[in-house]
Amino acid sequence: MTSYRILRARLGVLATAALLATGAVYAKGPSPEPIEPIKPHRVTHPAKVELGKKLWFDPRLSKSGFISCNSCHNLSMGGSDNLKTSIGDKWQKGPINSPTVLNSSLNLAQFWDGRAKDLREQAGGPIANPGEMAFTHDLAVDMLRSIPEYVAEFKRVFGNDKLSIDEVTLAIAAFEETLVTPNARFDQWLKGDKKAITAQELRGYQTFKASGCVACHNGPNVGGNSFQKMGVVEAYQTDNPAEGRSAVTGKDADRFNFKVPSLRNVALTYPYFHDGAADTLPEAVDTMGRLQLGKKFTPQENADIVAFLKTLTGDQPKMVLPILPPSSDQTRRPQPFE
Ligand code: HEC
Ligand code: HEC
Fold this sequence. Notes:
Elements: H1 3-22, H2 46-57, H3 69-72, E1 87-88, E2 92-93, H4 119-128, H5 137-145, H6 148-158, H7 165-177, H8 185-190, H9 199-211, E3 227-229, H10 246-249, E4 257-259, H11 281-293, H12 299-310
Antiparallel strand pairs: 1-2, 3-4
Helix pairs in contact: 2-7, 4-7, 9-12, 11-12
The protein binds heme C (HEC) (2 copies).
């Protein structure tokens, strides 16, 4: 065995050990890098996507007539609200930070604790959540049925007159699947354009890999594909009562395990962590280094990693703002203050 092959074999063992230790896995493709480029989304049913976009922006799916999906996942701001925790019906303080919807179709499950298995299952949640849109599925469907343009559009898209919450969530999920952000400068680098990132950004990526960040943040979404403990080496201090994955599995071992967030577009999706406690990327990187890896980065290393993370901002979804059909005389009126 040449010394190169011995080194490769050793590295392989080390990498495997790191992965086993954290329980993370990433697909081994032809690329030797643990991060893969995002593929552009191919729309197969444009009419369904267009309907889903209307529903996404329609605040009449909320009791107040004021809150839409876009209120807390603002597509002009990286698909998030940039607040520590979201604001819901009647200005209620939300329990947890709103994750971005960008590239969320690539995640293994939805929500910080993964309690929804996919986008479709997720989409019904906020409409009926009293702390978010505070409506019911029946009232949402009644609202849509009271508007002839919506009735006709659902019929055109689904080929039947059902118009139930199932069709609503199918259309929203179809729209959300289009919200991918390919072509980040880092993806251009992965595809061979060595000039796409600077020397500092490359150094940051190397530190990101060598320190072990990639054990949890890997794959096309640089995360989103496993549940991991927050506070592996050192406990995380927070007043936020969220328990993480154990709320779903009931297993004590899953306490404080959260879905590893995607680091795609992370420069846009501040503040960070499930409680929104870290306002800036340098702060989040410092916390991750210490709590997950027992590593205190120098200011230079921290700045390098932050520079690398900023190369993960991809092409943001471009769209024409939908014009929503007006309410009819039969449409129930909003109740923002009741
Ligand atoms: C009042 C604010 C608010 C509104 C309105 C809202 N969301 Fe959310 N959304 C959140 C918060 C907070 C979470 C995280 C909840 C959790 O993990 O427990 C979330 C999570 C999600 C996720 C999971 C993302 C991931 O990676 O885990 C998706 C997808 C999503 N919302 C889509 C929607 C859709 C579709 C609508 C409209 C039907 C909507 N949201 C309305 C605040 C909101
Ligand atoms: C053991 C797995 C693991 C390792 C290793 C790890 N992370 Fe994380 N990372 C997580 C989890 C889990 C969260 C979510 C924690 C929370 O919100 O409470 C997270 C959150 C983040 C966030 C905030 C993202 C957001 O949208 O809120 C950033 C930034 C981040 N990690 C960067 C890093 C960097 C840089 C490293 C290496 C120094 C690293 N991570 C190492 C699991 C890991």
